[in-house]
Every structure is written in structure tokens, then in C-alpha cells.
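Researcher: We're teaching a course module on how sequence relates to structure. For the next exercise, students receive a sequence and then see the predicted structure as C-alpha cells, so they can try to spot secondary structure elements on their own. Here is the exercise chain.
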Amino acid sequence: MEGLMLARVLAELEPLLPLRTLGWAFPDETTAALLLDGPGLNGRSNLVLSYRPPTPVVFLSRERLRGEAHNPFQRFLTARVRGDLLRAEQLKLDRVIALHFAGETGFVDQAPTRLLFEVTGRNANLLVLDQGEGFAGRIVMAAREITGSRNRFRTIRTGGVYTPPPPYNKLDPRTLGPEEAQALAGVPVGRWREHLDGLGPLLGAELLRRAGLRADEAPAERWPEVLAAVQSVVRDPTVSEGTLQGGAREAARGEKAAALRKALREPLEKRLTLLRNQLSDVTRAETGLDDAVRDRAEADLLMAYAQTVPGGAASALLPAFDGSGEQPLSLEPSLSAVQNAEKRYTRARRREEVYLRLAEREAPLRADLADAEARLRDLDTAELDALEALSAQLVSERPEKSPYGARFTTPSGHEALVGRNNKENAVLTHRLGRSTDHWFHAQGYPGSHVLVRSGGRDLDLPDILYAARLAAAHSKARGSSNVPVDYTRIKHVWRPRGAPAGQVHYTDQKTVFVDGTLPEAN
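Model: And here is the predicted structure for the students to work with:
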């Protein structure tokens, strides 16, 4: 139910207020009918609130509805939402209305309350709020509890604070004037509802029918005809049968597009976070080059003056090569001067290797980051077809998963499983792998175990290179070139006594050199 349709119902109800209420009836588990009494109703004795997703509605009915409460929320309505119906208001032309009840005195007094109806498709809800003005306040009870596990952006819980939907800037079609309408003359009529409050897919389609224009057609000089059609829809927000069918299809497509946008946003945001963290690693490694230069300079001094440094010293003052004076150096007393120098050389070499390895990845990382940012930027405006294509693309880029490791298929059709953590590495190597299956691991780098379930058969060279690239790409050597990868049979791999999960020794291995990038999908 769209905003202008809701406004029409409230416009019929408001002149009759305040009205005496005679209690509640519940035709089913998600419908509440408020029995009304007062002059001017003309036989319309019920205000019906149907809050079943995805098609919630509110309307005045002449039918005398009956039914006892079916659930705790409906029993709560019967007991606590009582007294005269004083006022009904709508949040702009949004699909949110509030009904204000006076409460009543009696054997057990009932305080004034507000009944808030979110007529919002799949997120439809009926809430009892405490007494107050506007649309914010404490939730006394909710028909549908929305927790963080169901919606990480918005929670609705009994006892919590209700926050109205965020504000937005749209034109009010009830007061739309010639100047505002003329400003939209260059906008296709099918997109006018993006600028006008209270119009959804159904009324947007009805506007097209009454204006006599195509959805992709901008009115240009015919904007007065579209303005007249808008004013007609405001006066009579009903939908013809043909438009209803087409609008229903458009509404279904809109809901599907909204669901896809929500589903795609989280993996894209995670991808952005990962890429930015990886680029931060490159920046930190570049900063580490300065430390490597300092380590090498200090190591050179120690090697040059090793004979003058006494054993067991915790520091030394050595003449700088450039004649700038003496340079203080901290030492490990348990190491000789030469050993202290070798430790600095090793540390410098490691920092340089890390930088070179990560620097090779910087360009593709920045390209991936730009691509992910563009995808996320276009997400809100993409049509359903583009969203479906993006979803299929993201699925194709994601490796097939199994209960134990990420699953790939080698060129010859063998299953290749890649451990995603130490626990999975241990399961693949020591539980799933048979003695004659093949096992791969990047030589000298922490990383994933790769199990190729070859059934005892020898692997062809394309399979070996494919599995080796999986091992290299899922190791600390990812993105590097000429990565050594060892492979052997599972029977030659064992876990040392007392070693943590995933740590192994192996023998009878062979080594191949491959790039640390994922192989192309088969």
C-alpha cells in the first residue's frame, strides 16, 4: 500500500474523529479490526489493519468482523489499546501511520497509547508505543520483533526505542505547482515517482496511464499534462485493473531489486575492507624499507668494528663511516658482534622481501579496489537486470565451498580442497586425505594445505601446476612470481608430536615454481 493510498484512508477517517471504540476483532493472526462507533460512519464500522507481509493494508470496512485474539500481541491490543480514537496521522507521505488512543479509566486504568503501523511491504509491522507526540518513543509491544540477526541496520524490540524511518527529500504531490513540475520536464515520466512523495510502483504506473506517455519518455513541453495527471492521482489514488497487473509485476521486480541490493552490499563492503587492509600492508611494508636501510647500516658498522666490541656488551659506540661522530648501537649481550650484525642483515632482508612481494600486488590491488568501489557506487541506481548480472558475477568469482575447505576442480576433473584455516588444514591432511592422494604447500611460506583427491592416480602436469597455484595463491606468497611449491603423497605427511593443528613435516616431495595467483576457473 502506497503513501497516497494511506493518505486517502486517513482523509476519510480524520473528519469523523474522535470516535468511540468498541473493542477489537481478529479475523486472522495478522489482521486487527478496530470496532468504531460514532456519527458519520455511514455503516463503516471497522478500521481494518492487516499487517501480513508483503502486502499490508489499512481500510475502513462496513463488514462486521469477528474473531478472538490468536497470539500474545493481539491479546495485548485487546487489553491495553483502549479508549477513544483521538487522532490519526501520517509521517509525511511515507508508509507509516500513528493512531492515538485516549486510554480509559475503570477497575484497571489503561494509559493513553499510540498504535503505529509500518505499512512497508516485507517489513510490515504493528507497534504499540507509549503516550507521546510524533512517531518516536518507547516500544511497549511489537507484533514482529526485529533483531540484529535479521536486520543489522534496524532493530525493533519490546522495551526498546522506536526510531522513525530516516528523513528524505521529495516533492509533495498534493502541493506540486507548475514551477516544480516544469523543473521535472526533462525527467522520464517513469522516474517521476523517484521525485514525488507517496508514489510507489502501482501509482507510478497509474500516473503513466493517465499522462498517456511511455515510461522512458520525458514530457518536455507536455509537462502540464503530467501535472494534471499527478493532481488526478492525488484526488483519486486508485489503480485500474490493467495497471494493477503491470504495477504488481513492477512492484515484484522492485522488491527483488531491493533484496538483491541488500544481499550484494555486504560482500562488496567486506571486499572493500579487505582490499584497503591489503593496500595498508603495502604502505606499512614501504615504511619498513627505512628500517631495513638502518639495519643494514648498523650491521655494516658492527662487521667493520667487530674486533673492538667486547663480548656480552649491551651497547656500543662506533665511529660512523661518514665521519659525523660516534653512533650508539644496542646489542643483544648473548650474541657476538658478528651475530648481532647477521641478525640485522636477516631482519633487513626479510623487510625488503616483504616489500617486494607486496609491491608486486599493489597495482592489481588498486585495480580491484577501483572495481569494487564502482560496483558499490552503482548499486543504488542499478536496475534489476544489472543487479542479477552482478550477483551472478560475484557468485562465479567465489570459489565453490565444501564443509571442509574451499572446493576447486583441476583440469582433469580431480577435486582440489583448500584449507581456510589451521583447523581445516589439519582435517584435510589427516582425516579426509587418503594415503595416495596428493598434498601441496607453498615452500617456506605460511599458507593453506591443498589436497587433490586423485584416487591413487598420478597427476598430469596441468593438474600439478593448477594445484600448486592454488597453494601459492592461498599463502603469504600470494601475488608473487616464481613461488616454490612442494607436493607429495599424503602418506609422506605427518604431524610432529605436540605440534599445533596445521603444522606438519613431509618427505619425498617434488617442487614446482608457479605464480602466486589463482588459476583460471575450469
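Model: If you want an answer key for the exercise: DSSP finds ten helices and 21 strands in the chain. The first helix runs from residue 3 to 13.
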